[in-house]
Amino acid sequence: MNTPDIHAVKQFLLHLQDTICQQLSAIDGATFEEDSWQREGGGGGRSRVLRGGAIFEQAGVNFSHVHGDAMPASATAHRPELAGRSFEAMGVSLVVHPLNPYVPTSHANVRFFMAEKPGCEPVWWFGGGFDLTPFYGFEEDAIHWHKTARDLCQPFGEDVFPRYKKWCDDYFFIKHRNEQRGIGGLFFDDLNTPDFDHCFSFMQAVGNGYLEAYLPIVERRKALPWGERERDFQLYRRGRYVEFNLVWDRGTLFGLQTGGRTESILMSMPPLVRWEYSYQPEEGSPEAALYRDFLPVKDWV
Amino acid sequence: MNTPDIHAVKQFLLHLQDTICQQLSAIDGATFEEDSWQREGGGGGRSRVLRGGAIFEQAGVNFSHVHGDAMPASATAHRPELAGRSFEAMGVSLVVHPLNPYVPTSHANVRFFMAEKPGCEPVWWFGGGFDLTPFYGFEEDAIHWHKTARDLCQPFGEDVFPRYKKWCDDYFFIKHRNEQRGIGGLFFDDLNTPDFDHCFSFMQAVGNGYLEAYLPIVERRKALPWGERERDFQLYRRGRYVEFNLVWDRGTLFGLQTGGRTESILMSMPPLVRWEYSYQPEEGSPEAALYRDFLPVKDWV
């Protein structure tokens, strides 16, 4: 056991945000705008958004570090003993919405949380993960995505990847559609064993693994020609993203219901979305293949 | 006190759905498609949608009548004594998304609920209302909308309109934006006094009042010329509609979380929606006027 080094976590997160923005910007050509903001209760953040790029219709990459003297009870529903403690929460969270429907949407998040009370050991944990949401599936991409996830987990134990892969599949499930949001990846939370250094290393591996998992897929698909049909399907499927985030995603709901910065939280919303009553893909079409071959939970590696 | 006449309520609701569809179709020229569906636990519905009309980009008008032997506890959170009783729930619910941004979006709903237990008096109530969501506000339209609502309430008592107008304003509030969804109208629930006939009459007045409130506004605005700027703003503001319905609307959430028919529930989603990070209307613009002069709660009559 060792003491959590909050400063080191923050430095890592700020650097991660920089790196991810630089690399997305480099591949696209467009630049990120930045808003710095402060939270009334304590702390603030750095929201960055790239819009109307050649490859990315929108990419939002947020850093935030908020703290307060007394944690609201609603923030610790599953650990009521932490209510009222002083706390720190920091993280990087991003969603990338590509223009080309052959390039999948991606999401990543890494976060650290700590609650303190005079005279007590601090309580802390890490969480995070990344997941992929294709519109048109490619087996090669799905395998690369999951292999990258598996490889970064390997040094931390054989059971890590299967556990966090399943957690991701369980989490990104749209109950009212009986559908996965995408093809999954990694999701972990409440990570605080065996010690801080180990957990921090794992969180860094996940944060750093995201670009390694995503960029080769972007490179492979970014020049594929697409038309109105593919765009229509992409906009329709983006509706599922909205439905998941607004109806089921605990982070989004918690943020919106407790006075988080709405514009930063809803940077995850796609720039353009379509709903169509009772849409069904044509049998045997590439759109049907997404539902049949990619969305059902599968072991890709 | 008199016995609830479920059959009469159902006949009224079916007829209301017919009338509304006929009139919307008559003004637009396009026709409604119908899906009849059945619910596994008992009952079913009749979902109707008009799409790609000259005036209405989409109009969804649903009738449903569901029943069961044992009400789920989740359905009666605020009246736990009703859990396990046999129940009937029926209603008409509609959302109209016009193409022309000068024509406001409208929503209406009327519903009846009854729970029974052998040896006990049945417990029943009515609910409903209608509300308007303009993109570009017109004082004349707002006054007409609210006057129609007031006039239909008048025969039921002087206090009815102010009470249900306020309930509507309170309900259609988007907390995470600190904004009203639109300019309001009427909202009522749990109505079961003084007796069935009185309540049923009021529900009929609300159901019949919707077209009277909405159609003159459609007629006045449908031919106004509009361009990309107005369309962009309409699509952006539709995002607020999605946010309200998926994050805050109890009916939508309850339906999605308890296995309701997803396609019918989400017929309320706009056909096309836009999100834009940190959008602010230009000062002094017609878009700014919506936020300044129309969305804040106001007495229009």
Automatic annotation (TrEMBL), chains A, B:
GO molecular function, one term: coproporphyrinogen oxidase activity
Pathway linked to the protein: Porphyrin-containing compound metabolism; protoporphyrin-IX biosynthesis; protoporphyrinogen-IX from coproporphyrinogen-III (O2 route): step 1/1
Keyword Cell membrane part of the UniProt annotation: no
UniProt binding sites for a divalent metal cation: H97, H107, H146, H176
UniProt keyword annotations, A-Z: Cytoplasm, Heme biosynthesis, Metal-binding, Oxidoreductase, Porphyrin biosynthesis
Pfam families named among the record's database cross-references: Coprogen_oxidas
PROSITE patterns linked: COPROGEN_OXIDASE
Domain of life where this protein originates: Bacteria
Cofactor(s) the record lists: a divalent metal cation
Assigned EC number: 1.3.3.3
Enzyme class: oxidoreductase
Reactions performed catalytically: coproporphyrinogen III + O2 + 2 H(+) = protoporphyrinogen IX + 2 CO2 + 2 H2O
Residues at which substrate binds: S93, N109, V110, R111, G259, G260, R261
Keyword Acetylation among record annotations: no
Site (Important for dimerization) residue list: H176
Family statement drawn from the similarity comment of this UniProt entry: Belongs to the aerobic coproporphyrinogen-III oxidase family.
Summary of subunit composition and partner proteins: Homodimer.
Protein name (database record): Oxygen-dependent coproporphyrinogen-III oxidase
Organism classification: Bacteria, Pseudomonadati, Pseudomonadota, Gammaproteobacteria, Enterobacterales
